[in-house]
């Protein structure tokens, strides 16, 4: 569960910044398994603890049975005139996350109604070919521990790559540029 909180912190920092540019990158739409149509984020101001509203719409072009889904995050912060890669520290920064394990950990007590009511399965093996939409959901952001509080403002470049490790295939990729003013 702790790693899931860290992923939410990183995505919260990225997606609810004041100035955000998001673009698809690095894969041919005709060969990808997952096409992210839109990501909707609403937040008056990002704060930890705090709340953001997040929604997503995507298409999956084939069943994901047997897939080992990973999220590779490359996190860079502008310091003076150069971009510095933020290393993976305690699950925050430039890390690789096992998405299927995160979902399993999140759903130990059952699949949340927000997912089941929208036809979104809680197990990677049960994701079938089709369209999936998660309407805006409020996500609680936890307090940033002392060392991570330095991430609360600045200019960032973030690469988000979703991969199927079992098939050694990129599923989706996003490139994000963000400025966070606290």
Structural notes for this entry:
InterPro entries: GM2-AP, GM2-AP_sf, ML_dom. One of its GO terms (cellular component) is cytoplasmic side of plasma membrane. Residues 1-19 form the signal peptide. Residues 22-178 form the MD-2-related lipid-recognition domain. The structure is a single chain. With 182 residues, the chain is mostly beta strands. The strands form two sheets. Strands 1, 4, 5, 6, 8 and 9 form a six-stranded antiparallel sheet that branches. A three-stranded antiparallel sheet has the order 2-3-7. The chain contains three helices and nine strands; from the N terminus they run αββββββααβββ. Strand 4 (69-79) and strand 5 (82-85) form a beta hairpin. The protein has one domain (2-180): Ganglioside GM2 activator (Ganglioside M2 Activator Protein, Chain: A), CATH 2.70.220. The chain has helices at residues 2-15, 99-106, 113-116, and strands at 19-24, 34-42, 50-60, 69-79, 82-85, 96-98, 130-141, 154-164, 169-180. It is globular.
Summarize the helix and strand pattern as letters. HEEEEEEHHEEE
* Rg for CA atoms: 16 Å
Unreliable residue stretches: none
CATH topology tier name = Ganglioside M2 Activator Protein, Chain: A
Mean pLDDT: 77
Structural class by secondary-structure content:
mainly beta
**Content of β-strand:** 35-45%
> Can you tell me the number of structural domains?
1
The CATH superfamily bears the name: Ganglioside GM2 activator
The biggest beta sheet reads: 6 strands, antiparallel
Query: What characteristic shape results from the CA principal axes?
Result: globular
Total number of beta strands: 9
From the 3D coordinates, which CATH architecture would you assign? Distorted Sandwich
């Amino acid at each position: 569960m702790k790693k899931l909180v860290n992923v939410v912190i990183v995505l919260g920092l990225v997606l609810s910044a004041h100035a955000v540019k998001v673009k698809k990158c690095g894969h041919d739409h005709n060969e990808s398994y997952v096409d992210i149509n839109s990501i909707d984020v609403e937040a008056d101001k990002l704060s930890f603890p705090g709340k953001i509203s997040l929604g997503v719409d995507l298409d999956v072009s084939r069943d994901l049975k047997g897939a080992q889904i990973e999220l590779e995050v490359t996190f860079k912060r502008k310091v003076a005139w150069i971009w510095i890669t933020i290393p993976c520290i305690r699950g925050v920064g430039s890390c690789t996350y096992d998405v299927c394990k995160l979902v399993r950990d999140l759903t130990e007590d059952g699949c949340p109604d927000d997912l089941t009511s929208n036809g979104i399965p809680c197990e990677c093996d049960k994701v079938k070919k089709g369209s999936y939409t998660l309407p805006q959901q409020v996500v609680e952001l936890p307090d940033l521990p002392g060392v991570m509080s330095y991430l609360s403002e600045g200019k960032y470049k973030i690469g988000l790559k979703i991969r199927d490790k079992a098939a050694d295939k990129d599923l989706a990729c996003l490139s994000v540029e963000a400025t966070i003013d606290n």
